[in-house]
Design goal:
Length: 326
């Protein structure tokens, strides 16, 4: 099946009833043979990886461009700035962001050693990297010092659950998103620093039970209807992409978009992605003591949403009296 036929067939699946879509999508995936390169999400990020190809899609570059513009303006005239990044991926955000003579520190929170190496390649000599090699939810005691800005792009959805209470109801220990965001508020509070959060607009967190129709529909809307079609549009139209990059983008459509629907049926603790939709992220940021200054989609498919926020003075980090939702 060539790429135009695949795109057409996928558009037709979108026109079916909800109950017809799963079988039609299975048939389409079977007619579209698995590309040779398979990689689990978030396992490797270097040159030639699927993540490297992902970071060059129009969906991803729009996120980096928006964040770079905000960070560049915010860090201007702040010698020896400190920026905390949670989840660095291949470090693409930092490519070309700084002037050669800029000075400061990036505190990178990411469990993978490879990610530290990849981020450091994009930093000029005056910008030092402090890599805290651990999952963010394990860092309740971390004190990063005065923080000018914090960026958490496509990472917080790895933390399951609205808060620790909801996690407990699903048999999980430890902090949920609310507690992690409240830490961000605490780190940003002394300086009134700026926070950036990028996440897809899709509700697939713990409150949606495995096998539920709502979960399946939401995964379809996000990973297939918006994400797969956006990557297919790049394959069809981006003249700067060579055959090898197009092949890796096709592997992403197969393995990272279509295959995501399988997560609708696994136990909730194994889902790997626990996204929220825009209304819920806004509610959560407010509950964590943040004022959202600006938010909006970064792509025309309305997949990824960006939240620009700062801690509310004195309220930051306080969980008291905040409603549990999600
Ligand atoms: C999808 S990538 C996003 C990378 C980058 N921020 C971007 O926008 O392209 C997720 C990153 O978060 C890291 N990560 C996954 N779980 C994490 C956790 N619990 N705490 C901190 N980082 C995590 C992964 O190692 C990976 O670098």
């Amino acid at each position: 099946m060539d790429i135009e036929a695949l795109n057409q067939a996928l558009t037709e699946v979108g026109g079916l009833t909800r109950s017809e879509q799963p079988a039609a999508l299975d048939a389409l995936q079977a007619a579209f043979p698995a590309p040779p390169q398979r990689e689990e999400w978030n396992t490797t990020f270097g040159a030639g990886s699927l993540y490297d190809a992902w970071s060059r899609t129009s969906l991803a570059t729009a996120i980096y461009d928006a964040n770079r513009t905000t960070l560049r303006a915010h860090l201007q005239g702040r010698p020896d700035f400190v920026v905390v990044e949670i989840g660095g991926g291949n470090g693409h955000l930092w490519e070309g962001l700084f002037d050669a003579d800029q000075t400061g520190t990036i505190v990178l929170i990411d469990p993978l050693a490879e990610v530290g190496e990849l981020v450091s390649r994009h930093l000029p000599p005056g910008v030092r990297l402090r890599h805290v090699q651990a999952p963010v939810e394990s860092l309740g005691d971390l004190d990063p010092g005065p923080v000018d800005a914090l960026v958490c792009s496509l990472c917080l959805h790895h933390v399951a659950g609205w808060d620790s209470a909801q996690r407990r109801r699903h048999g999980l220990e430890g902090p949920g998103k609310l507690e992690v965001l409240s830490r961000f508020a605490r780190w940003l509070s002394p300086t009134g620093g700026l926070g950036l959060l990028n996440e897809a607009d899709i509700h697939c967190d713990l409150s949606l039970e495995p096998g539920s129709i709502a979960l399946r529909n939401n995964l379809f809307d996000s990973y297939v209807w918006r994400c797969a079609r956006a990557v297919l549009a790049d394959i069809r139209t981006r003249e700067d992409a060579d055959e090898e990059l197009r092949a890796r983008w096709l592997a992403i459509v197969h393995a990272w978009c279509f295959d995501q629907l399988r997560y609708a049926d696994v136990p909730a603790s194994e889902r790997d992605i626990y996204e929220l939709d825009v209304g819920r992220w806004l509610q959560l940021l407010e509950a964590a003591g943040m004022r959202v200054r600006e938010h909006g989609f970064t792509d025309p498919w309305h997949l990824f949403h960006r939240y620009v926020f700062e801690p509310v003075p004195s309220a930051a980090g306080s969980l008291a009296g905040k409603p549990v939702s999600g």
